[in-house]
Each structure stands twice: as C-alpha cells, then as structure tokens.
Amino acid sequence: MTESADRTLNLRDPASCDPEVSGERGARLARMAQLGVPVPRGVVLPFDLVADMGRHGANTVLEPHLSRALDSLGADTLLAVRSSPLQRDWGGPQAILNIGITDANLPALAARVGQRQALDLYRRLIQSWGAGVAGIDAEDLENILYDRLKLAGVESEEALSVGDLKVLLDDYRAFYLEEVGQPFPQDPATQLKAALEAAAKGWNRPSAKLLRQAKGAPADAGLALIAQRMALGLCSGNSGAGIAHFIEEKTGRPGLNGRYLAQAQGLDAMMGLRTPVLLCRAEREALGISGQSLEESCPLATEALQMAGRLVAHGLGDVFDVQFTIESGVLHVLDAVPARRSARAAVRVVVDLVEQGAITREQALLRIDPRSLNEHLHPQIDPSHRRDPIGRGLAASPGAASGRIVFSPEAAMSLAAQEVETILVRVETSPEDIRGMHAASGLLTVRGGMTSHAAVIARGLGLPCVVGVTDIRLDMKAGTLRCADGRMFHEGDIITVDGSRGEALAGAAEMIQPEISGAFGTLMGWADATRRMRVRANADTPQDARTARAFEVDGIGLCRTEQMFFDEARINVMREMILAETVEERRGALDRLLPMQRGDFVELFEIMAGLQVTIRLLDPPLHEFLPHSRDEMRELAEQMDLPVSHIIHRAEQLQEFNPMLGMRGVRLAVTMPEIYEMQARAIFEAVLEVNSRAEAPVIPEIMIPLVSAAREVELVKARIEAVARDVERETGARLEYRLGVMVETPRAALRAGDLARTASFMSFGTNDLTQMTYGLSRDDAGRFMRDYVNQGVYPEDPFHALDLEGVGELLLIASRRGRKANPDVVLGICGEHAGDPASVRFCELLGFDYVSCSPYRTPIARLAAAQAALLVKAGR
Amino acid sequence: MTESADRTLNLRDPASCDPEVSGERGARLARMAQLGVPVPRGVVLPFDLVADMGRHGANTVLEPHLSRALDSLGADTLLAVRSSPLQRDWGGPQAILNIGITDANLPALAARVGQRQALDLYRRLIQSWGAGVAGIDAEDLENILYDRLKLAGVESEEALSVGDLKVLLDDYRAFYLEEVGQPFPQDPATQLKAALEAAAKGWNRPSAKLLRQAKGAPADAGLALIAQRMALGLCSGNSGAGIAHFIEEKTGRPGLNGRYLAQAQGLDAMMGLRTPVLLCRAEREALGISGQSLEESCPLATEALQMAGRLVAHGLGDVFDVQFTIESGVLHVLDAVPARRSARAAVRVVVDLVEQGAITREQALLRIDPRSLNEHLHPQIDPSHRRDPIGRGLAASPGAASGRIVFSPEAAMSLAAQEVETILVRVETSPEDIRGMHAASGLLTVRGGMTSHAAVIARGLGLPCVVGVTDIRLDMKAGTLRCADGRMFHEGDIITVDGSRGEALAGAAEMIQPEISGAFGTLMGWADATRRMRVRANADTPQDARTARAFEVDGIGLCRTEQMFFDEARINVMREMILAETVEERRGALDRLLPMQRGDFVELFEIMAGLQVTIRLLDPPLHEFLPHSRDEMRELAEQMDLPVSHIIHRAEQLQEFNPMLGMRGVRLAVTMPEIYEMQARAIFEAVLEVNSRAEAPVIPEIMIPLVSAAREVELVKARIEAVARDVERETGARLEYRLGVMVETPRAALRAGDLARTASFMSFGTNDLTQMTYGLSRDDAGRFMRDYVNQGVYPEDPFHALDLEGVGELLLIASRRGRKANPDVVLGICGEHAGDPASVRFCELLGFDYVSCSPYRTPIARLAAAQAALLVKAGR
C-alpha cells in the first residue's frame, strides 16, 4: 500500500471538491476553501481509502505516508476527525475533536491557549476519543463531569477552577485506564490513526448500515473522512463558536441572525448548558435582550461572517447556515448547511439569488417545488402554533381558516352579514348549500371524498376544506359536534380547519397570510417565459372566470355548465325540465333555461376577452339536480302543481346504483338530445352577441363528456352542427367553433384514433379516467386510501399523483393514436392532476398542448410546466 | 358480342354449380341435376351476362346464339324464367312461367296437355308476362279473372268451363292490347328475350337496390337468370304441384309431410284458393282428414319424393324443403330451400346427417348457432302460443314459466309447499329473498339490470327472470301490479315470464319442455372431443356444483364465496363480523363463520371429485350484507343487544356513492385482512379433510378479486401463505394450492405482466372489465342500452357481446404481457361473455386455457369452444 500517501487529498486541492470523492461535507468545505472562505486546513480521506482502511486497518493502509500529509497542516496542531458521507443525513461516526493533546505537550498548549482551556480541551479529547475510539460509555464520562460540577457547586465546566479541572482530568485518565486497561495514548499520530480507523470500521457496523439504508442510502454507500486543523473556540482572547443564518427562516428576508457562545467548541452554542448571545444588535434589541451581541462585542467578526455568507451564496448558489469558530478574534468556518427556510422564504431566496447573479433563472425555477407554492396562495397555520386536533379527514382544499361552528348554510349567511367568520360543518353538502359555502370561511364535512360536492366546490372557491372527517359525529338537532376523544363542541364554538393537512383543530389558530406579489410574482413571470404548454383554469361561472383572470391563466380549459344550473333561481326550472313527461314540456323548460345560460356565457366570454374557453356540455346524472329530502320534494310539488308522489316516483326512477358509471355525459344526449341542443344554442348566441362588440373574437370550444365510442361523437356533432346552421340562418352571421371530446373512459383512450377523426381537441379527464382504470371511486376511496398508501400498495394516491404505469399508459396510447389519426388534434388535460407537477411533466413529455386545473392551482401548474419544459429540453 | 352464346351455361354443366356464377337457386338446381335429382333441363345466364344485358339489352347481348342454347332444351317446349341472386333473400324479379305459347301453337299444346289446361296456361302466361315484362298492373288482370269467376258463379278457375276459359283468354288479350298498344307477342323467342331483359333491368331499379341492400347485399350484387323447361302441373293425367318437407319442423324427426294440389303450377298449393291434399297417409289420418293423400293416390310419386329428399340431403349436406311438380305422373323438382326447423330440430337434423354420412362431425358442430342451445335447456313458450304482453324488460335469465303472482318470498315459499307454481314479483331483490327465489318458478323485478341481484341469482338457479320492467307499477300494500295499458293484476293472478325475450305475459302459456339428451347429448359429446379450451362453470354453492356436474363441466371457474354468507342462518354472524368494533370481536364472528364455510367447501370439493375449483375470496362491499329496512335493523339490534342507532350509524358509514368502484374485493383484505385469512383457512382445512378420504386429491385455486396493483397480490399472498404454513404446522399435512387473480380493472389488464409474476392464473372478469372500460354500470345502463343499440352507437350490447375493439384490446394486451412474464400462467375468462360464442372464439384466438360461465350456459360454451377450435385451426 505504498501509494497511500497519494490517496489523501488536501482540502485546498480542487479534486476534493467532488462529493463523489470527499462526501457532502468534505466537498463543501473544499469548495468554500476554494472560494476563499476561511476554512481550517485539512486533508480528505476519500471513500475508497476509508473503505480500504475499514478492511485492512489504518496501519496497513495509511503508513508510512500519513504523517507527510499531516505535516502540511502544521506541526503541533490539534486535529479534528469528521465524517463525510455522500449525503449528510446518512449519518457516520461522531466527530472527534482536539486530537493531538498528550501529557507531554499539555504545558505548551496551556501556554498558547491558556491553562483552563488546555485542561478542558484535554478532558474533551478523552471524552470524545474514549467514547468514539476506545469504546467507553460516553455517559460514564459525563457522569464524572457532572459529579465534579456538583461537588464544586457550579453549573458548567466554565465555572470550575483550574484545580477542579486538573482533578477532573485525573479522574478521566484514571477511569480510562480502568476501563481500557491501558493509559490514554500519548502519541498524537496514534490518536489520529486510531480515530480514523474507528470511524472507518464504525461505518461498516450493521446497525449503521441499516440506519442509513432506511434513509435511502445504497448498500455500498461509502464514507469519506476529514482530518482538519482545529480552530479553537476554547482559547485565550476573543474565542468561541456559533452558528450564523443569513436569512429569516419564515420570510427569506436577508439579515444576519444566529447564536454565539464565547469559550466554546463545535455546537456548544446550541446545547443549552450556557446561554449564547445573539449575533446582531438589531435582533437583540428587537427581542429586548440585554447584554452584548457578537456584533457589539466584535463587529469585525460579524462583518467577516456577512462576507463569508455572501461568498458561500455566490459560490455555491444557495443560502447556507454557517457553523463558525472564532479563535483569538479570527473567524474560521467549520461547516455550512443549506439554510432552513419556509416554502415562502424559498421563493424569496431564489429570486434574490438570481438578482445577485448567484444562479440563473432556470436554476431558480428548478429549485422550487411547485407544490410548495400553495403556501403563497392560501392562509396557513403558523408552524409555531400548538395544534389541538379534534378530527382528521382528507385535505380537500388547501389553506386554513378559523371561525364559529355553524351547521346550516343559513346560519353561515346570517353570521357573514354580521362579519363573523364561520366554519360550516355538514354531513355532506349539496348544491343548495352553495350560498352558505360562499358565506363561510371554511368547510368541514363528515362524509365524502376528494371529488365530493363539498371538495370540488371548495377548491373552486379557494375555501379551506376538510372532508371525510369520519371520526366526528354530528347531532344536527342538538347542534353539537362530538369528536372521537369525547369532547363536545356546540354551534358558535370556534374551531379551525386546516385544508392543507386535512385536520380540524379546537380553537382559533395563528395564521400566515398569503402573498402572491413580490418574489412570487417575479418567479411566475420567469415560469411563463419558459414554459411551452399553456395553462388554463377550470372555471364554471363568471365569478370563477374572474378568479382565473386574476391568476393570469391562458384561458378556460373546463367550464362545467352544470354548475350554472345549481343556482337557486334556476334549479327549479332545471327540475321541471327533468320531470317533464313529454318532449314538448321538456323543450318548454329548456326554452326558459336558454336565456339564463346564454347570459352566463356572454359574461364568461366578456371576462375572458378572447382567451380560449372550453365549455363542457352537461355531464352529471340528472338525479343530482332533484331535491333529496321529502320537504324539498313537497315544496317542488306545490310549485309545479304536481302530486308529490309523482316527484318521488320520478326521483326513484332516476336513482342509480353507480352514478359515476350511469346515465350521464354524452349518454344524456343520446336519450334527451334537446338538452345539448339548448346548450349549443346558448353558446352560439352568446358568441354572436359578444363578438358583435368585442375586439378579440371568441371561438368557443364545445366539449362532449364521457364518450366511449366514436359514434357518440358523430351523433352529437351532427346535432350541434344543425343548431349552428339554424343560428346562422336566423342571424345571417357566420359561426366558428371547435368541437372536442373529453377522454375519461379507458375505452375512449384506446379508441382515441377513431375519436380524433371527428374531434378537433381531446381533453383528458384524469379524475374519471383514474377512477375507471383502477375501478376505484374517489369518493369512496378516501376511507382506505391512507391504509393503501401507508402499506405501500399504491406508491402514492393516484388521485393526487398521476399513475404513470396504468393511467399514464392510457394517456400515452391515446395521444399517439389521436395524433396519428389527426396530427392537428389539440391535446390537454383537465383533471386535478393538471395541478400536480409530476403529472404536468408527463404531459410535457407526451407533447400535450395545455393543462387545465383549478384557478388556485394554476401557479403550481405554471411553474411545473416551466420545469417540465426545462427538464425535457435537457433530456432528463 | 359474338361470344354471347358461350356465356350461357347448361344446368347440367358442372360450372353452373358455382353460386358465384349462377346464384343460389341456379347453383342448387345445377347441383341437384348433377346428383340425379329430376330437375327440368335449363340454361343459366350468369351474373356477368345478365349485367351486360341490363346495360345493353337482350338483342345486342344474346343474339344470335341464344336460340342455339335453347335448342338444347328441346323444341316447342314451354319455358320458365326465374331469377337467382347470390342470396335468395336479396329478391329479384318474379318468375315468368309458360313462355312460348302463341295463338299459333295453342292447338298443339291443347292436344298435348288438354284443352282446359292449354287455355289456362296461356292466360297465366299473359298474366305473368304482362305484369313482369309489359308493365301491366297485375291486379287489373286478376280483377278480370275474378269478374269472370263471379259471372260463372264458381270459386276457382279450375271450375270454369272451357267456354268461360276461352272468353277469359280473349278478355286478357284485349286488355293487353288496350294497355300496351300492341297485341301480345306471338313469337316464343321474342317472349323469352323480353322476359330476360326485363328481369335484368328490373334488378337495376333503385328501389330494388335499396331493398336488397337493406338485407345486406353489396352495392354491386349481381343477378343470374335461369331459363328452364316447364314441368307442367297443369296437364292431363296425374299432374299437379306441391311442396315436400322431410322433417318435422318442431322436432327435426324425419318424416315426409307437405302439401300437394292437382292441376296446379308453382306454389298454387300454398295459395289457398283450393284445398291441397297432404302428402302422406299417416299425417292425414293423424289429423283426421278424409280423402286421399298423395301417397294414397300416387304412391310412386311419394316414393320418388322420399328418394329425391334423401339424395338432396346427401349431396347438399342438409335437409331441404322441395318444391315439385308432377307432370302426367312424372316427378320434377323445381326448387329446394333449406328446411325450416326449430332450434331443437336443427340439432337433431345435423346429428342425423352425420349418422347418415351426409356431413362430418366438424360440419355438424359448425352448423349450429351455440346460442340456440338455450332452447334445449329451459322451458320455452310454444311459438304458436298467442302472446299477451303486459310488460317488457331485460331478458335476465332464459326460459319461461307461468304461475300465480306473489309479492313476497314468504308467499312463494308457502305456495311452493302446496305445490303451486308462483311468479315472484318484486321492485328489486336482496339476499334475504333467496329462499323465496328458490321456491318460485319465475321472477319479475321492476328495477335492476343484467347484473342486479335478481338477475345474477336467477341465472345461477336457472330460474326464468325478467328484470327492469319499468313500465309496470307495484303497490305492495294493495297487492297489485298495474301495467302500462292500465290493466290491473292481483296477488294470485296467473302470469307468465319469458326470460328469453324479456317479457311478462298475461295468463299461462303453452310450453315446450327442455331436452338435453338424445341428439343434443351426441352433439355435446362431439364438441367435447373437438374443443381445446376447458369449460368450467360459475358455481357458488354445493347445489350449484351439482347442477354444474349435471352439465358435465371441466371444473368450477368461479365460486363466489359471498353467496355462502347470504344464507339465513349465517347472514347475522356475517353482520356481527361487519359491525365489530375491534379486531377481537371481528375474529370472534369469523371463528363462527369458519366451520360453516369449511363445511361448504368440503361439500363442494366432494361433489367436484377432484375437478378444478377456483374459489374467489370475498368480493362485494360489506354494506351489501347489512339489513336495509329499519325493521330489519331493529331486529338485528335486538339480537346483537346493541342500540339500533349504532347499526344505523355503521350502515351509514359503510354506505358508498359508487359501490362498484368502492371498498370491495382485495381492498377488503388490505383493511380487514382477517376475512381472507378465515377464508383461506376454511379452504385449506376443507382440502385436507376431503383429501384424507378422496381418491383424486383437490388442489384448490384461490382467486383474489378486483386487483389493480401487483403489490395487492403480494400482500394477500403473504398472508395466505402464512395461513397455509399454520395449517400445515397444526396438522402435519402438506398443502398444495394455486393463487391467482381476477383481472377486472383496466389497470390490472395493463399491468398483467407484474401480476403474472406472482399469480399462477389470471381470470378475466369481463363483466366488471366492460363496466370500467366503458365507464358504464351494467345495472344502470339497462335504461338506455336499447336506445344505444338501436341508434347504432354500440353495434351490440357490450355486456352480451364482448367489445373486441376496447375490452378485447385489454384482453389482448393482458394475455400477451401475462404470458411473457410467466409462460405458465393459466388464462381464463369468467364473465358472462364466457357464454357468448363470439367472445369464446376471441378467447380461443388469444390462447386462453378455459372459459367459465353459468352452468346453464356451459353447453353453449362447449359448442362455441369447439367451433372456435375448428375455425382457428382452419385459420379463419
């Protein structure tokens, strides 16, 4: 092993900047050293060398050249041995500090650093070396220290007298001799080699392997070691150790803060035995703390820290927390880890880094997890708030809100009139509750899944919502909510819903308010300039359309026309249409719905000002529009002058075993063609009205839901074409429109070639497609999805992350066949997955033209689309 | 056009036996002539010649060589021109008979055939030639005849005097002259050419084209013509015409029967102006008719007919109805069409033909539509019964039954005890009704589709059943059934359900009883010897297993274990299991279910005596087992000593929006693993018990339903394996079993490669797979499926005929991927499609190992599998 000397690397050698050689810590220290950050000199023992040493021992592998390598660090210096795996959280043996002290050189050390300090450093060496190398129980040694502190009547070793420190050191040496059977080694080189070998062997222990493999380390993960000159925070003069942060964790705002402890080593400042000081005066004053901050006691040190922080940010392209030591007034940087930051701070940081020229816009865009943008868009519970959960369910609509419990939409509305915030609590919601949902600040339902009425509407409104909280029980009559632990809440009590985590909490919670300008806006602008795919919003009403515009979308990808019928003023006309006995009666009701729907479309088109609008024709089963309770049925019967039995009978007739798979979507058109004809007419008349005065003409996109056979599309197309010709004849105007289909059954995906011959666009409804591909109702799956994901049956909830292996293959098949049959066919996706970054990336890979999701998720989609474009361009 | 003479073919020329040249009739006549059947001589004008004639006229195309061809038929003979398209039902101009009579040769004809006959033949010529060639309205000519009959005071022209006949002929000639402006043509060759040209041109008329295209003819379908020597049934001596059948239409039993009319032509015997005689004495006597049959008046003629029939059957490989003429005591065969026969007769006929050596077994197997076998297996309403429908629904379970209306299972049971046949009428059925369904003779439900509880159970029981009869209304309190036309039926009134046609009829109906031995049994034996795929039955209970054995199946392909829990004695233990609050309580209930289930399996295995049995673990959502009405809930609460509110709450908790896509199948196992563990133990213990005394050891096949991810299978497999090891430890015995999956979600089909690595068999549940691929609930689709098929949106109901383009592609993908990952994986299908011949053929193409369907459909599957094997072998 004669080449061993060559196999160590100096930290200043550029070769040591490679994490595959030096591990994460080693490579970062080397890079900082290269940047001119004051990193103590040291050598790296790369992965392969440490591996050899683990197998063959330090003597065989390192001799006779190690000492030559160490000579470069300076003679008589104290050394630290630190571990450096490829990823920091894979663990590795604890650092051993102060290597090199012996009985013989102790006096010289004392002369250099002070008597107390030298004694304490020696004791600390025996402590960490004894535990890490000689196998002594660290607690035994600590007990000796605590006994001594107790005897001396002081709280920390700093307060011990020199005499006490000497006795303590003797105690340590004696205990070491007793435990190990030999005196503490008195040769610095022996101390060092044994420390290195122990670290190398410790890495191979089965328990260490298991631990790191649990964190994702591969079986053959290696360890690098760093032998580095000690910067002595225990030293005469202005000496100590601390940690410096360069941003505010919560906001990302630049600003030095942190902790520092004089006469301390390593992470002593964080350990809490003694009280550290703050780094900056401003922070100290803001917190009303007396005494001096480091800035006040040693302004040059903080200035040096500021510059070190800036150097690291520039050189490493991120903001780091820096662990430092001051030895006799001189700064040494011992370590740097990426600065902890909230999701919001992360955006601020990358935008600042771009503006400082430290990273590129592309890097900034790729650095942010799109899902974290949610925190910008909705109020969030302050992470420091103590949570008192009273029920768990599905995180149906993100954001949090506190308010008084109400059990009825009416109560929510009346309290809203008094500007009282409310949380609407229901078993489940139905279309009649919508106005109450508008009035409430948050929503909680006992039943339902991610596509329940409550969840869908709440997401559309941006209303924090938790559904499927099955562990609470409601007594609507008594006006009480009883949670699983037996606690009882009454109407008017204050609770909080956390729609981002799917929890209900007792009481009010402190909130962080949303922020969508500033750095967020800048980042969004870069994303828009980078992405290829268009991002549209799902928006059903003029109000939704306004929200969508506020989010700067490229158009509406899904306007669910049924939402327009749930309005109180319209639902009964809708019901008359459904209950009609003859085609004439049905047409009569439809004639009254026509101007209402046309009016909506006019407003929608005007708001969207020429942007693309895709209107989906009526989709849900008709029974969804009928009243559910006997009281409501009686009311409707009176209004329609019909026997209530007639309404009950009709409702029973329309009832379905599996509404998801029933008489809905295009199937309505095959049996009741008048409905789609009315809708087509409403769209065409609205287009002509708007185009007569608008500058940008509207070319509406009409979408047929739930197709599974090409013939369905041909039938509907012929009828819509006939309506268009009628409207043209009546008005003398020329109509332009596009007709497309929603691909949401597996069969539609398989037959996409047929469909694309008739359709000018295909929009993948991945919610339904996932339900049908898995044979899994999203509303019903909530109950066991958690078990399923926890047991690893599904790697993720397929309703959140597109199932690439199953549903994804259908998208792939469909897009290929569709494009082959009709190269001009426009492809998009309009399920919830359109707001899921991995799914958006998959859409980019398939060459989709657009994604469409809820307005509140469009920022996520915009960033995800930008990332996808960058990654696909880079071939990753 | 000098080659025209060569372009006609003599009927005795073997080239004219090709239907692509001579059409169906021409080719058949030619073949009969070849066989030695006395077919009058004639020439064929093939398709291309007739087409030319249609374009260019007879003179251009036929001259100058036609006469030479006709010379071969003999001079001075009368001719008939008949049309012969490729398929008889594509139509073609009417035959023109007696061509060649002129004023000049009439006396010679009279001398040969008799004065009366000659006059009548001339009149008939003018009638048919005038209408078919000269464009006279046939009715005008007929009116002249009827006027003359009236004047003469007789009923038919046979009774007219020679004088009357002469006057009538003059009237015809005069009318012809008046209408056409020229006298009736007096040159036989002119008559013939005009008749041929008129037929050729008539074929090209747009109305004729439309008519035949509606019957499936291609746009360029051609017409051949036959000019054939007349056999004169209007002739002196023993002359006449008739039709002979050689089997009994209803049973297929051999036996000459038919009609004959003396002094008649063509189909006069069928026209009803005069009363024909029967052919055979036996038939005449059986019907108690006086007079003489043809057999009695001319025994040689019937003997000749018998031989002609046998010759035709041998030569043409089928039994034909023969149209014949006797001219002066000599038999002439004019036409033969395949004998009409009932579905049952068809089987008898092909078996007899094989036994006569007329066809091969393979031909026999291919000749029978497997679906027609249903008529052998269930009582059928006699086709001659006058039907009085009171409601229409879905044909949910074939066969027919009459009985008294009962509205409750209890009433059905109590009347069954008195041996009174009942029809159970319900809105829909639930598991508690099963014993009543056993007791009833037929079942009618207002709601439900082809997979509703009623339909599934009825098919399993072989009970005639109509579901989804939405046009009737029940008043259970009043005990009345009101049908759409307002008629009211009461409990105890007799009605009939026709489960083969999906109809309910008023009153009792005459039935044809099933027959599964005799020819049917012989054919099944041949099918079994021919098919490659195994045919198994879906059988849930020991009783079903016995039925399956009676149908000689190869094993059980699907045993739905849930059916065992619906038994009255067990359902409450099942309910306790479901309502259990803790794992211990649940195990307690399962411990009580274990011996019951084990007992079922013991019985099942013993009945199946070593044949393969595939047991599907629990599949339906748990709420299906809970009581539905408040009364039942109260009862259960009392029994379990629980507050009824608890049961209501639990039932509400378990309720699902889309049970088809909910918490069922393998999903139960992931959240409540104890259930499958109990079932596995019951199977293993039963196997050991049976194997300890049986000769053929049972190797059970355990099937996991509704998988969509390989990890589900791995989880369940590990648990079942653990149970197996436990049982082995406890008993010291060795267990052998196979574990497989049901592929019934599109995702399972796509991921079949993953699944096949863990599963030893994959059984395609095409019912659910079709539902999910289309996004279409079978139970809910009943309402609009008829519209969908009628409007051609779906070519067929995909729940009856496997959708090859969508579901079929998934089967193809899955079978390829499955076999690639595991070449030994056994593939089968266990949906209803397993009893659909086209689907069975598709399974053969994909190389499946077995199909499994309801016991009552296994004969269909056996024959279909045999046909599929033959066709695939032949590369068709």
From TrEMBL, chains A, B:
Protein name: Pyruvate, phosphate dikinase
Biased composition (Basic and acidic residues): 1-10
Keyword Cytoplasm carried by entry: no
Any one GO molecular-function label of the UniProt entry: metal ion binding
Region feature (Disordered): 1-22
InterPro entries: ATP_grasp_subdomain_1, PEP-util_enz_mobile_dom, PEP_util_AS, PEP_util_C, PEP_util_CS, Phosphohistidine_dom_sf, Pyruvate_phosphate_dikinase, Pyrv/PenolPyrv_kinase-like_dom
UniProt-annotated binding residues for substrate: R560, R616, E744, G765, T766, N767, D768
Domain PEP-utilising enzyme mobile positions: 421-502
UniProt xrefs under NCBIfam families: pyru_phos_dikin (TIGR01828)
Entry keyword set: ATP-binding, Kinase, Magnesium, Metal-binding, Nucleotide-binding, Pyruvate, Transferase
Species per Swiss-Prot/TrEMBL record: Paroceanicella profunda
Superkingdom field: Bacteria
Physiological role: Catalyzes the reversible phosphorylation of pyruvate and phosphate.
Chain residues that bind Mg(2+): E744, D768
Catalytic residue list: H453, C830
Enzyme Commission number, as recorded: 2.7.9.1
